[in-house]
Amino acid sequence: MQINEQMVRDIVAQVIAEMQSGGFVKCRDEKSGVMSIDGSKVVMEPFDTGRPGDKVWLKDVITSKENKNLAAGLMKIEQTEFPWTLNYDEVDYVIDGQLTIRINGCDIVANAGDMVLIPAGSSIVFSALDHARFVYVTYPANWSEQAEG
Question: For position 138, what pLDDT does the model report?
Fold first, then answer.
């Protein structure tokens, strides 16, 4: 195999992208934007709900840097409930545990394999009596700038 300048540039770009993403991007085609995430390598970070003692972690894995429309990440909640107002659309897919979304006095309960749609403008309470780990997908991609908490 003959190494050329473009190959070196491509390898360096891929290494930089992986370093910036925390190493969880398995594969990315820069031209098309198609990418895959290795969920086992995603390290979630504590998320400040504004309430001391809440056990919430998350990690954005697809951000407005990668896609101008949608963002996605992983979230984990343990024995915690906290209020949240969404000024963005969100779909949650529960990987394991049980996630409860409380809205207007109603509990929407989602178990592993279930999905939940939370439309923009919803004031909810995220809750997990034991634990919930889930994928969230948001529109628009800059959800954190839209959040009121």
Answer: 95
Q: Which residues pair with 85 in a beta bridge?
A: 123
pLDDT tens digits, residue range 37-90?
888 888 899 999 999 999 999 999 988 888 889 999 999 999 999 999 999 999
Counting every residue written for the chain, the total comes to 149
What is the phi/psi pair of residue 146, to 5°?
Answer: -90, -20
pTM of this structure: 0.80
- The 3-class SS string of 35-76 reads EEECHHHCCCEECCCCCCCCCEEEEEEECCCCCCCCEEEEEE
28 forms beta bridges with 35
Contact 46, 78 (CB under 8 A): no
**What would the pLDDT profile of 53-68 be if each residue is shown by its tens digit?**
999 999 999 888 888 8
What domains appear along the chain, each with residue ranges and CATH number? Answer: 1-41 (no CATH), 44-146 (2.60.120.10)
Whether 132 contacts 77, CB under 8 Å:
yes
Please give the Cα distance from 43 to 57 (Å, whole number): 9
